[in-house]
Amino acid sequence: MVTDSEPAPPAAPGKQPAAAHVVLLASPGAGHVLPMAELARGVVAHGEFTATLVPLDDLPADARIETRILTVVDRALPHLRDLLISLLASSSPSGGGGVAAFVPDVFGAWALQVAAELGVPGYVFRTTNLMALLTLLHVPELDRTTTCEFRDLPEPIRLPGYLLADGFIVNTFDAMEHETIAAFNELSHKGVYPPAYAVGPFVRTCSSGGEKAQHGCLRWLDEQPDGSVLYVCFGSGGTLSTEQTAELAAGLEASGQRFLWVVRFPSDKDRSASFFGTAGHGHGHGDSPLGYLPEGFAERTRCIGLAVAEWAPQVEILSHRAVGGFVSHCGWNSTLEAVAAGVPMLAWPLYAEQRVNAVMLAERVGLVLLPRGKDDGIVTREEVAAAVTELVAGEKGAAAREKARELREAAAKAWGPDGTSRKAFEAVASEWKMAAAARSRGAS
């Protein structure tokens, strides 16, 4: 377990009381740690709190992602209890220090029991959207009333409008999920669920120099026409099979569209095998995932495409003038980064809540690409070629670009002086401040 700060000592006589801590617990994986880090920045920027971010890094091997993450949280509970007790002890009679709130992400939600035992308010941070949270909350009712497999239901699921949580902090914003936020608020006012605070989007900013700014793919983009390049990347965890990698390559080649593709090692067993960086290593084709591409692919596409191995500076790429579309696994970090850059998306969901995200994206900023056959789950080269051509050069793609521009403007306004996300954050910060003050009065 790693933390970013030590408990603050009690304020010395005559000095300003120490700020109360907001303790944030991030599950393993970039999709959890990065948005939690951005939330921590926002907490500190608010000016009345100190943020202590606790990433978990004790990973058991050879298990599914969910099992590994939950095992890590379970192992961390005693250490987390000790940390909270230590921070609570730093509270001073004058009202400084202490703990204002405990904020785990969804995989760490069962650590709320520790906060509840110590009388610390607990708020779950949803690194994905509110629709996915609502789906999760509705699953017990769906399970109770459904006898078949969920995928076999004849009609789409109609969601209404957890836990020990005092509230949910969600990395989304009003223009992205206006109807869902309104429905959730209605249910919250009726006491069905704790309140939800839509405080996003939390998106990393472009770097001004260093390795990212010098990456060769950015220099390649500089040479391409405006809005002409399709960026292809399946996130930090998304993994294609060997066959799907070949079909995607053939589809991109057949489309004739310019592309920048971040290629990772394939896995024929797990669509999230890259989550912990274990996909494909030691299974031939050399030390690079580019060895899995069809023979001659790089030479045949060198005038229109660029394939890079493992990693590329995504925020900088999406913000580049040459990028006109994004083939994505629909991870929420990637989605919000595309929204902030005003780039339309071709949604290709792979695992977790990404199919839920894809439904939303189809209505908001892009198109959806799903396998038509139920047997092998492969998106064919013909389907790839047709979809990427439509996104880059078709009427649906043009409409998606316009929607993406509108949503980019709305995202920028969300944290403006009167923005909905700023107001939501001020509301939850006010709750934390009152709770910390009440605890200090009780201690004195």
Automatic annotation (TrEMBL):
Protein name per UniProt: Glycosyltransferase
InterPro entries cross-referenced by the UniProt entry: UDP_glucos_trans, UDP_glycos_trans_CS
Entry-linked SUPFAM superfamilies: UDP-Glycosyltransferase/glycogen phosphorylase (SSF53756)
Superkingdom field: Eukaryota
Pfam families for this protein: UDPGT
Keywords annotated in UniProt: Glycosyltransferase, Transferase
The protein's Enzyme Commission number: 2.4.1.-
Organism of provenance: Urochloa decumbens
UniProt keyword Glycosyltransferase present: yes
Matches recorded under Gene3D superfamilies: Glycogen Phosphorylase B
GO MF annotations, alphabetized: glycosyltransferase activity
Similarity section: Belongs to the UDP-glycosyltransferase family.
Signal peptide positions (record): none
